[in-house]
User: Fold these one by one.
Assistant:
Number 1:
Amino acid sequence: MFHIEKGKREKNKIEVTVTMEPEKVDEAFKDTYHEFSQRVKIPGFRTGRIPINILEMNLGKEYINQQVAEKLIKESYNKAIKKSEFEPIDIPKVDLIQIEKDKPFIYKIILELKPEFEIPPLDDISLEKKHIEITDQKVEEELEKIRESHARLKPVEDRESRIGDFLILDYEIFLNDKPLENSKKEKQIVQLGERTLPEFNKNLVGIKSDTEKEIIVKYPEDIPDKELAGKEAVYKVKVSEIKEKELPDLDDDFAKSVGADYQKLDDLKEHIKKQLNEQAKYEAEREFQDLLMEKVAEKCVFEVPEVLVEKQLENMFHNLEEDLKMRNMTLQDYYKMIKADEEKVKKEYRLIAEKQIKQELIIDKIIQDDKITATDEEVNKKIEEIAESTNQKPLKVRAMFEKNKTLDNLKEQIKREKAIEILSSKIKVVEK
């Protein structure tokens, strides 16, 4: 049907020449003429009975040749790439070489590939791997956070408001003595303290229920809300209730209220300690892996393909924009907030993108050279680990991966972890 010829690789690019036999080309011309004869209307000729020379006169030989070429390329393009055994990192470009009746059809596919490089000896790299001890104090701190989350709010009746109290209030914002559209809010909960506007703390500490206040707030120029940026607003506030947080006693009943798995307070503490240990181990491992990849990347010398950097940069900015949308911000708001322009941010992001792609290419190299795979046993083990950490059944976790069609992503994660383990085995690791 066709044969290919691989050219000489130049840097990260290589040409693959595809040649199709004249018989196949003539067949494609015949089919194309027949299709045009059925579709094209030319005065004096019946549909399906238009001679070839008339079609060529009306449509042009060059146009017909182009249509035949597209048909033949479409038929052979993917098969030719597969046959070449190359894995392009971008959409390959096509150059048409020859398209004529009674002659072979020839075209070239220009493929951009991952860079070729070798990983040098790594035995001169020495890295510390931290071991973080989880103290009783850390357990108590985490327990206190859980206790805080189970607190209830009770009304305050015998005193004035103070920092830490929760106020139930209605308010409306005024600019130049005119109410701001859609600014009227009712039954809002505001906790006095560091997360509240200083002007609110100043005016709402030391008051009682059913108090009305006018609070002047001067907004800085760089806030995302353009309607309020740089302006002085008046909040007309009415406080209907004052509440304080009431914490539950730390006893066995509290532990039972947190979850059915805990019969005693010690059970809850044991679970907290286990979770903190797992988190500390994960963070230490992540920090170690990041540093390991940085050191390995420094020793590997190769040119990172620009096309991969651009793709990564595009993904990074897309993720940034999506994150900003959730906070009702635009990129321009973001640039203003961090006091930087688009050029500066792109330059910084490009450096990060280059670093990330280089590290991924090194991991891909290890996976390829060591023929790393993810076995069914390893996939099952990873699913069990995820199930345990998320308090779910393994079957449910697997069903989620299968439903979302992300089981292959999990396999890639396993292969990546195994590749990093191989790199780790080649350096000196100091347990700290």
Number 2:
Amino acid sequence: MKNLKILFLISATILLATGLISCRSSQTSSTADSRFKKLTWNDEFNKPSLDTTKWTRISINQADWGRHMTTEDKVFGWEDPGILILKGIRNPDTSRDKRPFLTGGIYTKDKFSWTYGRIEIRAKLEEAQGAWPAFWMLGANTVHGKYPRNGEIDIMEHLSFEDSIYQTVHSYYTLELKEKKNPPHYGKAAINRNAFNVFGLIWTPEFLAFTINGKETFRYPRMAGVDPSQWPFDQPFYLLLDQQLGGSWVGKVNADQLPVNIYVDWIRIYQ
């Protein structure tokens, strides 16, 4: 009987400790989100056309990611119920446009920007060699100077057939001062390939916390005692979503594997 009592006390102590740890873990998780509960901006893509009060199609540009961008309808589509499609395709008419590939992208530049909050994007990524889909954010003004001083937040970048995505922060601090390890400026996170995932970011004055399907996978903190360019993330940012093809990072495109699409279900921002 004495041994049974001792065993009961030990079991009860373990259960109590486990409960406290679980409770503390739950509180820590919810605390990160507790300040951002109000839905302030969203797009559910329930209509088969782009809401031009919120979005602009991205035009061709000279950046590595923008060489194949086009505003033509052929790289945009909709799928019921309420799915936006951003496409990467072979160019069907190279007599008019010499580029071998065309890609679709949209951004909220000059239409919507925000400071601090939680953003979630539910989307599915198709795969192809040379495909480089991205959900990312850029500074909406030049409070800290021109790029890269105004910062860049890459919520999600995926390369070809990799089983993980990249979550990255860029700034003058990381790109020009080469401070990429103090603190580490990127992380990798596994996703459910060829399925819908929720890609997220919790943005506070103290840190950027990147999430996949509600779980934090990488955190970039604001640092004390370093060059001030480490934290340009105290100003409004706008959102970009785009299917990209080819480039110095992802490499050459296998045209036989095209088209390749991003399927976007919804985007929600809480503050």
